[in-house]
Design goal:
The chain is 60% helix and 6% strand. It is mainly α. It has two domains: 2-74, no CATH class; 89-130, no CATH class. Helix 1 crosses helix 2 (18-29) and helix 1 packs across helix 3.
Length: 130
């Protein structure tokens, strides 16, 4: 199994550099691949900010990628929940922070008002400043 870095994943998903993209595709399609949560988190950020892709495009790309039988992701339950909440309008990082913590804790605290609004929509109680 081979762990991959964000740059390989971005090349694979965007095909923006022919030589590097071919290498990434050959590596990813020809091997058992491990993708860490931090690589997914960074990849989402790069695709959103550097490539200006919409959340739905990123979500579809991640679903296709993670559906491949030779791809293993760190903490699959967390990633499934992260992608579910991301599809409901959460920021990807916020969704991942909440999903990661949710496995161990009952409560999550934040000062982020947008995060709080989104959490209320999915009936999550957050500890907030009153």
């Amino acid at each position: 199994m081979i762990g991959i870095d964000t740059n390989l994943l971005v090349r694979f998903l965007t095909n923006d550099d022919p030589k590097q993209s071919r290498y990434a595709e050959k590596l990813i399609k020809g091997n058992m691949i491990f993708i860490s949560k931090s690589v997914l988190l960074e990849t989402e950020w790069v695709l959103r900010y550097a490539y200006e892709l919409d959340a739905i495009v990123i979500l579809n790309a991640f679903e296709s990628l993670l559906g491949l039988p030779h791809i293993t992701v760190e903490d699959p339950a967390c990633i499934i929940k992260t992608m579910q909440w991301y599809s409901q309008g959460f920021d990807f990082a916020d969704a991942m922070h909440l999903a990661s913590s949710n496995q161990v804790t009952e409560d999550f605290a934040t000062l982020d008002k947008n995060f709080i609004k989104r959490a209320k929509k999915i009936n999550m109680n957050l500890i907030t400043m009153t």
